[in-house]
């Protein structure tokens, strides 16, 4: 992902739940089958792909960070593989109208330093997220969740303390929305809404995330952070469900090279890889068999145009470059792990919705190329005035292979030159947010299982709309989906949104993801069925081997 990744969203459908209250069930945790003998040393090492840009839940914006944050922190609720909410910090909740929600915290909750977790910490954290001073990439998230006054706060018209969240007492949080939201619980499981300790942040300021300072609420706590080498988390005995946690330590490595990832896995230095290099997939499948894990993954990989920068402010240029890439070759030949060519932003069957493909999906590549050359000529580009631009991607062999293939296609099919540039993840994020790029590699991984997690990133007012795409018709159709009262109408509105994205081409969707990892046979509890590809350390254990 890269993003989760990582990403403000809106959700439709109004389903009133009268007097709903969930009993304090157990959240997901490690379940060791009868007869399984555990190893004495319960420690694992996983590759995380890059150095985390931050461990501040309000400043993180990708799976690089969320992989770690989801082990260190928990929210009011968690979501299982089937999309069902489960209690976490909140033991139960109730609502009569899907508009006012009351959460009852578990008694005796404590931060990793032993201090109490209170309703005020939740209030403080949500206000901090939306406070313009925080400069969170997820600043708009509470607006898309429709928390009362969020939009006004984001616009700078209202103080963060007017946000529709308050502590009724030390263990009770009330959230008021400006409209009913049936998917509210799924949305608040996102890591940007994980509570942080108000006392801790106020004591240490910008240094609160450093080892020794950071206190957490999840099954693990930060032990050490050696920049560009490793992040180590150890078991948090103050976690409310510590009795069902098995691992004692998790180490996260920032290895960008897929080949190095595999080599260290084979050497026994890594237990779970980040992914599997495309060029090695077939041979590793043959060599390691069941250690290769693949599954569908709700994510889209795309190239984003800087829509406000010439010549990419010309829709004809964007459409031409979109047409000039053979997505089938990218998915089947360059990658070849089961990825599918993407002609829509939203992966099919996200939240149970399906989408009609645009006409270009049924054209031959020669037909697409001919149409693309025509569009470029109309925009003033051709043999006498060739188009040349920079294509930025973050350091990774996979991204490099895709970029080389795309540049080759543009050159061969359209006579266009793409100059490849790569930067480390954190640097690329800064470059992208500052708008100092022509075309940039990016991706969106679902924050929740519903199309709006993908579609809302292109809203004009969304803080994650880094392509700077603005289209009033697009914004309106998503508003219409939000107000719709039937799934059929929501389907129609979402289809209109996808059609606008296809016509306006603010980005070029290349493929929809699969999750591919190598996992040691002695790692128990690994989940192959999570549609968001999440790996929670609290579910894992090491089998004696």
TrEMBL record:
One of its GO terms (biological process) is peptide transport. Pfam families: SBP_bac_5. It is found in: Cell envelope. GO terms for cellular component: ATP-binding cassette (ABC) transporter complex; outer membrane-bounded periplasmic space. Gene3D superfamilies: Dipeptide-binding Protein, Domain 1, Dipeptide-binding Protein, Domain 3, Periplasmic binding protein-like II. Residues 1-29 form the signal peptide. Residues 85-463 form the Solute-binding protein family domain. SUPFAM superfamilies: Periplasmic binding protein-like II. Keywords: Signal, Transport. It comes from the Bacteria. One of its GO terms (molecular function) is peptide transmembrane transporter activity. Belongs to the bacterial solute-binding protein 5 family. This is Oligopeptide ABC transporter substrate-binding protein OppA. It comes from Rouxiella badensis.
